[in-house]
Amino acid sequence: MSFEHLPDGLGIGDAAPRITWKLPPGAGHQQAYELEVDRSGTVHRTGRVDTADQVLTPWPGEPLTSRERATVRVRVWTPDTDGPSAWSEPSAVEAGLLTPADWKAVPVGAGWEEDPEAQRRPARVRKDFRLDRLPVRARLYVTAHGLYEVELNGRRVGDEALAPGWTVYPHRLRYRTHDVTEHLAEGANTIGAWLGDGWYRGKYGFDGGTRNIYGTDQSLIAQLEVTYDDGTTLVIATDGTWSAAPGPLLAGGLYEGETFDARLHDPHWCTPTRAASAEWSPVRTGRRDPGTLVAPTGPPVRCTEEIEPVTVTRTVDDRYLLDFGQNLVGRLRVTVDGPAGTTITLRHAEVLQDGELATRPLREAYSVDTLVLSGRGPLTWEPRFTLHGFRYAEIAGWPGELTPDMVTARVHHTDMRRTGWFECSDPLVNRLHENVVWSMRGNFVDLPTDCPQRDERLGWTGDIQVFAPTASYLYDCVGMLDSWLTDVGLEQLPDGTIPWYVPVIPGEPMWTPIHPGAAWGDVATLTPRTLFQRFGDRELLRRHYPMAKAWVDLVERLAGPTRLWDTGFQLGDWLDPAAPPDDPAAGRTDRYLVATAYFAHSARQLGLTAAELGDDANAERYTALADEVVDAFRHRYVLPSGRMTSDSPTAYAVGIAFGLLGPRQRRAAGDRLAELVLADDARIATGFVGTPLICDALTDTGHLDVAYRLLLQTECPSWLYTVTMGATTVWERWDSLRPDGSLNPGGMTSFNHYALGAVADWLHRVVGGITATAPGYREIAFRPRPGGGITWARTRHETPYGTASLSWESTGTGLTARIVVPDGCRGIAELPGRSPVVLGPGEHVLDTAGLAGEAA
Asked: 0.85 cut: is pTM over it?
């Protein structure tokens, strides 16, 4: 069982959390369920509830109150049993602090004067307290202005990184709940925290960045609540009784890296046994509206993997160059010993140029970590409040010989549960898919960013709009994206404009002031709908519905009676490979064709959302609006010959994929699209808009063979060109690294951008063959469409109901498919050349000669 979209129920922010469970193996379908809720010994049962619903079912009984803990279990009735199943194992859910009145903590930080325009030395804060006896329960509710790591009695609390993450801080600041019962001792105790600037007051953004975007303080907000066996409680909250001192972190920033002087670090600083020191002084207290403190809806950023260097090369001037074999996001952990004052620098980059780190693509994100040794023996260290995007690292100043076991790259990203896998007979395609996975990992760092390495790392709306279908197959990212979409709604302008990136920070002159832009602003309508289709969360759709309506209403006003959005600033098919390096928006496709196409598509999808939510009047209104825009699109952008005014692959792809063409126009567009692709020898000719659509547009108009040729092309530009050039992530530009090995000269040259990896959704649905045909995969089409010489493929997805999988292989007489339909779901197998076959839950083996066998 699970609650909402969280990996566990501790500190949940919903008083009535919805409940999800998977059926017992082999159960088939659920006819009814019964929930049992134990609230401190008071047991409530729902009785038998006759429904097949098992995903995000309503909370039974009264809502939870702050701090209340309950255990829940379920039993189900299925068709082949006389009575209910056994009860599930009980699952615990515990509410966090649900009302502003629950908070006593105030922000506390350095009490000394600081220059707000300078890079400031981070502080540590702490508090000593006593416990008369051991508690039966202790909870720490914690967040910060900036970043924090908490210790209790010298022991780290939790394992999250860059907490509390990045939200629209004036409106929402996440806190997290920790069970710290085992951290406490009878008698003297000490709680303390490291602090960092992070997004709150660190330098962030373009052209040198902006400091103090949200405030000038760096403060901890923490509330430790201790409960004894007699029910009495003790609260230790951040207030004026806490102390602060400069820590051994001399400087730090998300872009810049971190400097740590081990000579200044007392390892006992957060224990009751530490020596007294005059450097500790009273904190300065601040203010925070507790009504803005919210519980998380998804998992935090964590270290999820450790990678050893593949090679370590010593240079003639005693630097070490390390290759980790994989472009990743994280930081280095080193173990080193040397004389006091020895200074070691760690530099990072994604690629090499002439055997040295290629740092130009980083722009002003210097990505340099510095460690000064104390001389007190071996030290294992890694930075706390920064992350870098890199495959290569250079280490200078290392005392003695550096061996591979002394350095580890620790991979960090939002710790989402992996849910999707794919592989096939073509090793280059497998590497492409793996590159997509790595780019998603590197850019899902609390919010969906564009890139993880340079002075940007922003939540670009257009990037995730095109990538959300791929993302939602690969990982359970719904809780994280739901939180980010909430911030999109908060940053939406009063007229309905959706920002280019969220949270919004200064971006003069191109991005500030904010202008409405097609494909980017359409995240408001399209991404909530994608998440609904993939995860079945109707309430998510409902929450973001006002944002979607405001966006489409804005575009309707901008287009006016003509229904053509043909004015204003647009990015068009961003990063079309034909665009010059210094003008990525100058592609082959009319920007206003793209804008009007997205207007029609968003209006259509909004009409479907309205119908799903029971808003019949708006369903009719937006559907009619979409029809009007489609008619205007055809008159303006489709010529009598069937050609489009922009005779480009992206123009035909959006026309086909968004349903903007009549039957004859659609056939002509598909033929012309295939002709254009083949005329360019199946090299890619699309950017951010066209790339996610082109393979589907070809497939759906009878040109599957051309789609495979496009996929399997290895010449530049193409998906597999990057693979042949050694890429281990998806690049921002098709030619970020040119065939001669030189870097693209453009100012935007990232080697880790997921947007162009949106083709993986086509791999999952068309090559692999799994498509959700009802929300949450309640109904699934198993429809592989082999081609391109690929002789086998397999894909697997963990749906909300359980595992769906399809493995097919070509045989001498046709194709054999092995299919798994999750319990509670219905499948339809549509194998090439065969009539559809309805499948129930379980394992099935079919081939194109007929039903070969079946196992329940």
From this structure: yes
